[in-house]
Specification:
By secondary structure, the protein is α/β, with parallel strands linked by helices. The chain has helices at about 20-35, 70-80, 90-100, 100-110, 155-160, 175-185, 205-210, 225-230, 250-255, 260-265, 265-279, and strands at about 40-45, 60-65, 85-90, 115-120, 165-170, 190-195, 215, 235-245. It has eleven helices and eight strands. Strands 2-1-3-4-6-5-8-7 form an eight-stranded mixed sheet, with helices on both faces. The protein starts with 17 loop residues before the first helix and ends with a helix. The structure holds thiamine diphosphate, iron/sulfur cluster and magnesium ion. Thiamine diphosphate binds near residues 49, 123 and 125.
Length: about 280
């Protein structure tokens, strides 16, 4: 039985890489549940785009965000209640254009959040405009002659921004991606998973990725090794590119204090929420 399924009708195009991301995430939640995490403690958010529909397809608590702001939304959740595991789903346009400052500063302060990028190299929902990770020469309605810009490299950007967990996955390698997602959520600190997501309608990259992806056989031993792996172009290495341990932002701010749980008893919190909802 799929206890994460919802009533929502799935409107992704048949063959979209988002299906693999959804399945991998469900597997990751199951892995975490098997290790003792209650799924009620996992909160999600999403930006705006095809990727964001994942919010409707997962029976988990959360808050739909606006374009580029899912990283900010989940930081608020975590700061209010550090007992939660929080996950932001974001598109490549969403995270690397409209929301790039939220992404960089969440990494810089080592906010204990997980960011999953549906990196399809295109603005999918708005029908195919070029996006920050589109290849040079990409043709779409906003670049009919081909984009003249170099694509942004999400992995090296995150290394420069002090992220403490950086990984890349591919939905075709479903179990590998599920494992990366579970490890990202378990990591204490800022976790980033860039998912190479083919968009069959506007940027069909299956053939290219199938020939270029390669699962890493070891965790890079240093920052410099991680950077050289992040910058490889001959292959697209998959796996954890970088991992380090640093105190997360909420603990630097207030140690083990939990603002929601420690500020008032549960009954009082419920009363306040009921009063707010009746306004
Ligand atoms: C502030 C703001 N600017 C622009 C839009 C219009 N808009 C909605 S979705 C979208 C593109 C989303 O692209 P991406 O984040 O890559 O997600 P995808 O659809 O590819 O999954 C844009 C530009 C918006 N909703 N809000
Ligand atoms: S437009 Fe692209 S990203 Fe959006 S649902 Fe279709 S295939 Fe997926
Ligand atoms: Mg996109």
């Amino acid at each position: 039985m799929d206890d994460l399924a919802t009533y929502a009708e799935n409107t992704w195009c048949p063959g979209c890489g988002n299906f693999g991301i959804l399945s991998a995430f469900k597997k990751a939640v199951k892995k975490l549940e098997d290790k003792g995490t209650q799924k009620e403690k996992i909160m999600i958010s999403a930006g705006i785009g095809c990727h964001a529909k994942i919010f409707d397809y997962l029976k988990l608590s959360g808050l739909y965000s606006i374009h580029g702001r899912s990283m900010a939304t989940v930081q608020g959740m975590k700061l209010a209640n550090p007992d939660l595991k929080v996950v932001a789903f974001a598109g490549d346009g969403d995270a690397f254009w409209e929301g790039i400052s939220h992404l960089i500063f969440a990494a810089k302060r080592n906010a204990d959040i997980t960011v999953i990028i549906h990196d399809n190299g295109v603005y999918g929902l708005t029908t195919g405009q070029y996006a920050p990770t589109s290849e040079k020469g990409f043709k779409g309605p906003s670049t009919p002659e081909g984009s003249v810009e170099e694509p942004l490299n999400p992995l090296s950007l995150m290394l420069e921004s002090n992220a403490t967990f950086i990984a890349r996955g591919y939905p075709v390698k479903l179990d590998h991606l599920a494992d990366l997602m579970a490890q990202a959520i378990e990591h204490e600190g800022f976790s980033f998973v860039d998912v190479l997501q083919p968009c069959v309608t506007f940027n069909n990259t299956y053939q290219k990725y199938n020939s270029l992806v390669e699962i890493l056989d070891h965790l890079p031993e240093s920052y410099d090794e991680a950077m050289s792996i992040a910058k490889r172009k001959d292959k697209l290495p998959l796996g954890i590119i970088y991992k380090s341990e640093k105190t997360p932002f909420h603990k630097l701010l207030y140690g083990d204090f939990n603002p929601v749980m420690n500020s008032m008893p549960r009954e009082k919190r419920r009363e306040n929420i009921a009063r707010l909802l009746s306004l």
